[in-house]
Amino acid sequence: MLWDNTHNKLKRKNISVAVGLGLAQLAFFYASVFAQTQKPSSLNEVVVTATRSPKKQADIGKVVRVISVEEISHSQGRTLPELLNTVAGLNVTGTGTNPGNIMSVFLRGASAGNTLILIDGIAVNDASSPSGEYNIAAIAIDQVERIEILKGGNSTLYGSDAVAGVINIITKKGNGTLYGNLLQTAGSYQTFKQGAGLNGSIGKTDIALNVSNLDSKSFSAAQAQASDSSKFEKDGFNQKSISLTISQQVTTKWTLLGSLNYNNNSAGLDGGAFIDVIDYTYRKNAVLINIGSKINLSKGMLRLNFSQNNVRNEFDNQNAITDNKGKIINAEGVYTAEINRFVGITSGLNYKFSKTDQTSDYGTLSSDSAKNNIASVFTSLFFKVGRYFRLELGGRFNKHNQFGNNVNYTFNPSFIISERAKVFFNTSSAYKVPTLYQLTSEYKNPDGLKPESSTTLETGFDANFMDNKITFNAALYSRKIKDVIDFGAQKSGGFGYVNQNKEDTKGLELELGTTLIKDLNLSTFYAYTDGTLKISDTKEVSALSRRPKNTFGASVGYKVNTKIYFSLLYKYTGSRADKYYDVNVANTVDINLNQFHKFDTYLQYKPMDKLTLFADVKNIFDTQYNDFAGYTTMGTNFNAGLNLKF
User: Fold this and answer.
1) Residue 69 per-residue DSSP state
2) How far is CA 254 from CA 204, 413, 478, in A?
3) Distance CA 260, CA 251 (A)
4) What angle do CA 20, 26, 31 make, to 5 degrees?
5) Which residue in 633, 640, 487, 614 sits closest to 85, CA to CA?
6) Which of 88, 101, 211, 555 has the most C-beta neighbours closer than 10 Å?
């Protein structure tokens, strides 16, 4: 329960820091940048997440958007949630709030927990959280090399939780000449960050070691009521992160792999919407360890991975302690191959074990009972017929120790037209099993819970014109989820987790990008989402709490010369419904969060090849808005620094 309160707690503020407006005016003067709104895809771009092996976008029939190395290097003053928030159809709530808040990922209108987060292809759920979602705010952007966003139901290749899509966060890897780098930034709210890295190859060993520390005095998470003249305390934030990957080539065909991702987040919290609390703190420790190998075979590759993901969340509310621990063990073998020039295959086995231990004033969960496991076997075949027709046929069989058997499928044909356009159709199923918290907490259902099951229909096209100088992407989708897990009245007379009837969501995404003028990049997107949750045959409600129906984004970018780079980013977020618990009336209050427009700008200067100076100014017009009812957001704020390679 305390976690649920904290999850709702983490939001808002309207403090203005009018620093860096000169840079903002300069950004308008040049009217330029390299596009921080995620660029539409190119058919020649190679991605790995859609098929679990490298393939060109032209050869797959799914929607994959990439945030590249170059785009990340031009976003050094931003966070990972802020960067993801520039992708069409992807809304990360809380990006403008106190950095200690838990950010929720809403992809194509789906609820938090229905988007699977991967780090280097490894699922990183949080076994201790109510929804199972992983807090992406815990991942330091300076340790990320590339991000791939795979949209649509993808449980065939990735299993539970891949209902709306998959976000694969690919960390930095050692390759080539060994080099080091130092990062130092400073910004609003007394925010300072230090980072260091060592990346490259030593003989047959590739190594990437990156560490960072971020500290911010920040601001109050809770927003004061207009009638409240008291001054809320600042809720500070600290993040320490380590990322280590090692690749050792043993023979020409066999490579050993190892990785460690560690982060420690600590933050001050408040008591809820419009409620300030003194001495309420939160600490999160997350450790992901992976050991694996890569074996090159005559007609393909076999990857073996064993990972353990431990997450611990501790809350201290004036000596009232909540301690939630979660552990997930994943073992997987995946074989990928091009059998011949007509057929490719991805096939594998997966075993996942989860458990949690939780203690609080509301009760205790013990891993003796709060545990489960699921075993899966999956195969997808990829057909290439001539130059113009592609088809994926896939299936997955899952055996859960509590819920029995489950089957998922993918049918995904696509057509290439004159090597300039791709038209695709995709129908797939996905599922999400109840979390350990939903099954064993004080809100468990005495009558039991069923897994959510979903089907997604999707069609669209990607087109490139004038030698890829113009790209246009469109996607239309419909998703239906049965047995949606939600809070409600239980048959036993209690109130807690129940399976609602069904949820229907539909949407449209349009993306356009141009590079008609040398070194000038323009991109824009529009996304529409609508959804209803059918509770009974006679009652329907909106399924888009905290999620806008309409979003629009645009960016303009210009590389002035070899030393100067500029970007200007705009995003419109439509109105959203929200609710909060009002202690004055002892009841939940519905509220509408107004639409808002937000502009950011970025300036980068390289006085020499190995030194980069940068400044990132966000919310340059000091827009007053809310991501969550009763919580603050940042006004105009900036972050500036340098990155030195040696």
Assistant:
1) H
2) 12, 34, 43
3) 23
4) 130
5) 633
6) 101
Read off the tokens for 324: 């939630």
pLDDT computed for residue 388 by the predictor: 92
Enumerate the H helices of 225-270 as residue ranges.
Answer: none
CA angle, residues 41, 158, 435, in degrees to nearest 5: 120
Beta carbons within 8 Å of 645's beta carbon, 6+ residues apart? 179, 180, 181, 610, 611
Residue 38 is predicted with a pLDDT of: 54
Position 453 confidence tier, pLDDT thresholds 50, 70, 90: very high
Residue range 200-225, pLDDT digits in tens: 999 999 999 999 999 999 999 899 88
Contacts 24+ apart (CB under 8 A), 533-538: 533/484, 533/486, 533/500, 533/501, 533/502, 533/503, 534/500, 534/501, 534/502, 534/503, 534/504, 535/488, 535/500, 535/501, 536/501, 537/501
Structure tokens, 631: 């919580």
Residue 29 pLDDT greater than 60, yes or no: no
What is the torsion angle, in degrees rounded to the nearest 10, for the CA atoms of residue 79, residue 80, residue 81 and residue 85?
100
The 10 Å CB-count burial string (b at 16+, else e) for 73-82 is: ebbbbbbbbb
CATH match of 2-645 with 2.40.170.20? yes
Neighbours of 594 (CB within 10 A): 11
Q: 19-33, 120-134, 162-176, 396-410 — which is least confidently predicted? A: 19-33
Tell me the torsion sign for CA atoms 96, 99, 101, 106. Answer: positive
Whether the Cβ atoms of residue 455 and residue 482 lie closer than 8 Å to each other: no
Q: Which residues touch 165 (CB under 8 Å, ≥6 apart)? A: 107, 108, 110, 115, 116, 149, 150, 151, 152, 153, 154
The pLDDT value recorded for residue 204 is 93
What integer pLDDT is reported at residue 2 of this predicted model?
33
Backbone angles phi, psi at 641, to 5 degrees: -175, -165
User: What are the counts of helices (DSSP H) followed by strands (DSSP E) for the chain?
Assistant: 6, 39
* Distance (Å, whole) CA 596 – CA 34: 24
Judge whether residue 19 has pLDDT over 90: no
Check residue 103 and give its pLDDT.
Answer: 84
Per-residue pLDDT, 34: 34
Please tell me which residue, 269 or 30, carries the higher pLDDT value.
269
What pTM, to 2 d.p., does this model score?
A: 0.91
Who's near 51: CB < 8 A, 6+ residues apart?
60, 157, 336, 344, 346, 380, 382, 392
Average pLDDT on 188-194 reads: 95
Confidence grade of residue 5 (pLDDT, cut at 50, 70, 90): very low
Distance CA 43, CA 464 (A): 7
Determine what percent of the chain is predicted with pLDDT higher than 90.
73
Strand ranges, E, within 94-178? 104-107, 115-119, 122-123, 144-151, 165-171
